[in-house]
Each structure stands twice: as C-alpha cells, then as structure tokens.
Amino acid sequence: MLPLASASHRLHGTVARHLGIAILSGRTPPGTVLPGEIAASESLSVSRTAYREAIRTLSAKGLVESRPKAGTRVTERGRWNLLDPDILAWAFETEPGEAFIHDLFELRQIVEPAAAELAALRRGAPHLDRMRQALDGMARHGLAVPAGRAADQAFHHAILEATGNAPLIALSSSIAAAVTWTTIYKQRRRALPRDPLPEHRALFEAIAAGEGALARARMAELIRLALADTESSMVE
C-alpha cells in the first residue's frame, strides 16, 4: 500500500513520485507496460482519478506514454526530461549513478560560468541584494540543513536572474535543483569536507565589482571544487 499523502502534498503527486522513483531507479525499466488503471489504483490503494492524474504528470515529464489499446509504457531514457526538478529529486532518492552526476556537473560548467560573467556585466542593485541575503542565509544555517541549501539555491538563482537572459533564467529551477541534490548526495555518508562559503563570497565579490572574466573563472572553480567533494564522497 502506498503511504498516505501529507496535507501539503496532493495524492496524485505522491503516486507520481512513487512510480517515478521506480522508473528512475531501474526497477521499472524502459519498455515496461504499466498495469491497467483499475489494477494499479487498487494495488496502490488510491482512486482511479489519483492514478490517472499521476500518469498524466509522468507523461508530461516524458517518463511514460499512453496509447489506446496499448496501455501505458515507460519511455526510453532519451525522452525523459532529466532537468525537471521533480525528476532530479526522484533520481537522488535512489543511487543516481556516477555518470549522471558527472553529466550534471558538466552541464553546470557549460552554463554557470558564462552566466556569472553576464551577471557581472548586467547585475543591478536588487540582484546584488538578493545574493547578499542568500550568502547571509548560507553562513547562518550551513549547507547541512534545508534552510542553508535553500539559501544556496537562491544565490545561484539570483545569478541567473542577473543575466537578463530569459532562456538562462528559465534554467534556474533546474540548476538550483541540481545544486541542492548534489549537495545532499555528497553529505549522505559524512559531513561536507570543507566550507564552500568562501568560494561563494569570492564569486559574489567579482560580480559586484563588474569583473566578468573573474566571475567566470571563480564560478568555474566553485563548480570544480563541488565536483571534487562529490567524487570524494563516492569512494568512501
């Protein structure tokens, strides 16, 4: 039986999470035809409406496709929206695999240093204020607790916002989710090996000073160190 949903989480979201984790973990691999609506809703002890809405959610994220008379089938991995914040969360609720983690850091190295350079050239006072507030939150809470990780998310989000580039800003939720889940992942066995706040402050100083090339270099170094921390956690 599926655990009851909390008051803050609608039931179909709980069903979607349950099914999504099974798909991302490989327990329900691509090509699998899911049970019919009646059988599935009974096995999960949820209404057919909740199950139907969950399947719609998974379909919108590219994880499944439904066809008349053919049923609902898990799609190939290449069709999954791997940058969807929910999919990232579900992936990290299991062991996501080293290749996927390296892919996320590679994506960050492609996107975020360039974004930091643009932010240094285009930022306004409100952007800098949000970055300062985020740094204060990181310093106050630390990255071992949700409040500190939320502040870290806010810092990276503010940088992307400061670029003024709409497609880059649209990536902010995905980048922030990748930052958060890799941070949680590398703390799953032990505390963080070092305090990443100094690199964040150095990056902020470059952006505040309008030093585009320096901001790019400091963001690249911040990501390099974060990857090194994550790789260290993998071998323990």
From TrEMBL:
Residues forming coiled coils: none
Record flagged with keyword Magnesium: no
Superkingdom of this protein's organism: Bacteria
Keyword list, A-Z: DNA-binding, Transcription, Transcription regulation
Pfam families listed in its UniProt record: FCD, GntR
InterPro entries reported for this sequence: GntR_C, TF_FadR/GntR_C, Tscrpt_reg_HTH_GntR, WH-like_DNA-bd_sf, WH_DNA-bd_sf
Domain HTH gntR-type: 9-77
Transmembrane segments annotated in the record for this chain: none
GO molecular function, one term: DNA binding
Record protein name field: GntR family transcriptional regulator
UniProt source species: Methylobacterium terrae
